[in-house]
From TrEMBL:
Pfam annotation, one family: Aldedh
High-level lineage: Bacteria, Bacillati, Bacillota, Clostridia, Eubacteriales
Domain of life according to the entry: Bacteria
InterPro entries in the cross-refs: Acetald_propionald_DH-rel, Ald_DH/histidinol_DH, Ald_DH_C, Ald_DH_N, Aldehyde_DH_dom
Record's protein name: Aldehyde dehydrogenase EutE
First and last residue of the signal peptide: none
Keyword annotations from UniProtKB, A to Z: NAD, Oxidoreductase
SUPFAM superfamilies: ALDH-like
Chain ranges of the Aldehyde dehydrogenase domain: 51-438
C-alpha cells in the first residue's frame, strides 16, 4: 500500500473539514459494545490491559506461540487489518493524543497515521538469502525474537504503537507496550484497535498488550523480565541507556538536535519554506525536525526575510529573547530542562506567554544567536529556531557538527553544491541526512522510502522496519537440493 503525497493531503483536508462540522471526536461515544469513558478508551473486555508485568508478558507469550502457527500469508492478513484500523481511526487517535498530552497538532498527527498505514513495510520486508553448490544448500532466514518490550513516548504515542505493531508483528513477534504515563489512555485505545484487527483477521488475542497504570517501575521491570529477549526504546536518553544496559538485544531511538545548514548556493526561497514546514510539523515534536539553523552570513538576512513570509516571527529584542529562555526552559543549578508546558505547543501560545501578540498565521519563532545559546544547544521540541550566522561553509560544518552533539541522529542541508552536501553528510555521520527538502521527507512524506517512528540512531539500525525485529537463522543441508 502506498499513497501519493497529494492523496494524503487530500484525505487530511477532508478529515479536518468534517471535524469542523461535528463535535470533538474525543467526546463521541465509543463504537464498542461495552462501557466507555467517552474518549474511546473502553473499559469492557480489556484482555489486553494488565496491572502487572508478569501477567502482561505471559499473555503476550501465549499470543506469540499462536502467532508462530500462522502462515506468512495469515500474518500479512493481520497487518492488512491493522492498516485498515489505523486509517479508519486516524482522526480519533490524533484528537485523543493531542487532548491527553497537550502536544502537537491534530492535522499533522492525522498525516502520521495515514503515512504509517500506507507506507510501513509488512512481511514483504523479510527476505531469505540462499547459497547452493557442490556442498548442498544453505539458507539464512529472518525469524522472530518472541515477545518484544516496546517503550513508547508521549510526543508521538498512537502512531508509534501502530508503526511498531506492523513491523514487529510482520516479523512474527508479539508486543508489550510500555507507554509514557502521560499518554496512557490514547495508547490503550491504539492497542485495543490492534488487538481487534488481529482477532478480526483470525489471529490471536493479546497480540499486543499494555498496562493500566504505566510507570517508570513497570517499564524497568518489563525490560528486565526473563521472557523479554528484545527491547525497542523510543524516548529520552535515560530509557535508551537503560535498554542498552539490559544485556539483551536492544535498539535505541534516542535524542537528537538536528542542525540545518544553508549556504550561499542554496535556493533561499525554497530553503526558507522547507525549513519552516519541517520545523513546524506537529509543532517540532519529531526527533528528526530542524532544531537550529546554521546560515552563511552572505544569505542570512535574505533567509530570515523569506522565513517571515512563510509564517516565522522574528524576535529581535534581547530582553524578549531572554524572557523566552526563562519561559520555555527550567534551570536548577547547572541543570537545564524543558518546561513541559510548552513542548509541542503552537508558536502563538509560546509568544502569548512572553507577552507578544502574533497573528494566527505565525507558525514558528526565530531569532539570531551564538552557538552557545541555550535555545540553540538544547533540543526544544517546540517551534523555535535559533539561527547561527557563520562566515563560510567550512565554519558552518564545524558549528553544525558541534550542535548535533554526536547523537548521530539527523541533519539537513540546503545547497546546490554536491561536493559540499557530500562533505557535510560524511562529517556529521547521522542516521538521516536530508538534502534540499523538509525534514519530514526522511519519513517518506513527498519523497521515496518508508516511514518509522523508531529511529535507532544510538544503536545504529537507523530507520527500523520488520527486518529490524528479526534474528538471522542459518539452515544447512549438506550435499542435497543442489541441482546445478
Amino acid at each position: 500500500m502506498e499513497a501519493s503525497t497529494e492523496l494524503v493531503q487530500e484525505i487530511v483536508a477532508k478529515i479536518m473539514k468534517e471535524m469542523s462540522k461535528t463535535e470533538s471526536v474525543a467526546e463521541k461515544k465509543c463504537d464498542c459494545s461495552g462501557g466507555c469513558k467517552g474518549n474511546g478508551s473502553c473499559k469492557n473486555n480489556e484482555d489486553y490491559i494488565f496491572s502487572d508485568v508478569d501477567s502482561a508478558v505471559a499473555a503476550a507469550k501465549q499470543a506469540y506461540k499462536e502467532l508462530k502457527k500462522l502462515s506468512i500469508k495469515e500474518r500479512e492478513n493481520i497487518i492488512h487489518k491493522i492498516r485498515e484500523k489505523c486509517l479508519t481511526y486516524a482522526e480519533r487517535l490524533s484528537v485523543m493524543a493531542v487532548d491527553e498530552t497537550g502536544m502537537g497538532r491534530v492535522e499533522d498527527k492525522i498525516t502520521k497515521h495515514l503515512l504509517v498505514a500506507e507506507k510501513t513495510p509488512g512481511t514483504e520486508d523479510l527476505t531469505t538469502t540462499a547459497w547452493s553448490g557442490d556442498g548442498g544448500l544453505t539458507l539464512v532466514e529472518q525469524g522472530p525474537f518472541g515477545v518484544i518490550a516496546a517503550i513508547t513516548p508521549s510526543t508521538n504515542p498512537t502512531a508509534t504503537v501502530f508503526c511498531n505493531s506492523i513491523g514487529m508483528i510482520a516479523a512474527g513477534n508479539s508486543v508489550v507496550f510500555a507507554p509514557h504515563p502521560g499518554a496512557k489512555e490514547c495508547t490503550k485505545f491504539a492497542v485495543k484497535l490492534v488487538n481487534e484487527a488481529s482477532i478480526e483477521a483470525g489471529g490471536p488475542k493479546n497480540i499486543v498488550v499494555t498496562f493500566d497504570k504505566p510507570s517508570i517501575e513497570i517499564t524497568s521491570a518489563l525490560m528486565n523480565h526473563k521472557d523479554i529477549p528484545f527491547i525497542s526504546a523510543t524516548g529520552g536518553p535515560g530509557v535508551v541507556k537503560q535498554a542498552c544496559s539490559s544485556g539483551k538485544r536492544a535498539i535505541g531511538a534516542g535524542a537528537g538536535n538536528p542542525p540545518v545548514i544553508v549556504d550561499e548556493t542554496a535556493d533561499i526561497k525554497a530553503a526558507a519554506r522547507d525549513i519552516i514546514d519541517g520545523a513546524t510539523f506537529d509543532n517540532n515534536l519529531p526527533c528528526i525536525a530542524e532544531k537550529e539553523i546554521v546560515a552563511v552570513e552572505e544569505i542570512c538576512d535574505e533567509l530570515v526575510e523569506e522565513m517571515q513570509k512563510n509564517g516565522a516571527y522574528l524576535l529581535e529584542d534581547p530582553e524578549l529573547i531572554k524572557k523566552l529562555v526563562n519561559t520555555v526552559l527550567i534551570r536548577k543549578g547547572d541543570k537545564v530542562t524543558l518546561n513541559r508546558k510548552f513542548v509541542g505547543r503552537d508558536a502563538k501560545v509560546i509568544l502569548d506567554a512572553i507577552g507578544v501578540y502574533a497573528e494566527d498565521s505565525v507558525r514558528c519563532i526565530i531569532f539570531k544567536g551564538c552557538k552557545k545559546h541555550l535555545l540553540i544547544v538544547e533540543e526544544l521540541m517546540m517551534p523555535i529556531l535559533g539561527i547561527v550566522t557563520v562566515k563560510d561553509f567550512e565554519e558552518a560544518v564545524e558549528v553544525a557538527v558541534e550542535l548535533e552533539h554526536g547523537n548521530r541522529h539527523s541533519a539537513h542541508m540546503h545547497s546546490k553544491n554536491i561536493d559540499r552536501l557530500t562533505y557535510f553528510a560524511r562529517e556529521v555521520d547521522t542516521a538521516i541526512f536530508v538534502k534540499n527538502a523538509p525534514s519530514y521527507s526522511a519519513l517518506g512524506v513527498g519523497a521515496e522510502g518508508y516511514p518509522t517512528f523508531t529511529i535507532a540512531s544510538k544503536t545504529g539500525e537507523g530507520l527500523s522496519s520488520a527486518k529490524t525485529f528479526t534474528k538471522a537463522r542459518r539452515c544447512v543441508l549438506k550435499d542435497s537440493l543442489s541441482i546445478k
